Amino acid sequence: MIVVNRFRVAPEEQGSFRVALETARDALAARPGHVGATIGRNVDDPGLWVLTTRWENVGAYRRALSSYDVKLHAVPVLYRALDEPSAYEVVEPGTDLNVERTRSLG
Length: 106
What we know:
- Residues 1-91 form the ABM domain.
- The chain contains 4 helices and 4 strands; from the N terminus they run βαββαααβ.
- By secondary structure, the protein is of the alpha+beta class.
- The protein has one domain: Alpha-Beta Plaits, CATH 3.30.70.
- A 4-stranded antiparallel β-sheet has the order 2-3-1-4.
- Strand 2 and strand 3 (48-55) form a beta hairpin.
- The longest helix has 16 residues, at 14-29.
């Protein structure tokens, strides 16, 4: 699975935000099931940043978010993400896609 978190960052915060985002990426990267991560900044709008992470599955990502180190070093940065859906399934030839339906809580 892929998680895409976008951030709007003021010019005066760019340096400190970059350090915080790198720390968040490293905390996530230390968790089981993490496959890779990329930090990017938009070339046309330098105030727009992105953290893209790849995970073995959605469970690995959700378990990573509950770890102490991630709560301490990544969650404060992730709270700054733009309010939009961030989790995506990988679409490859022959894969079955998630079916949109109401899920049971029990």
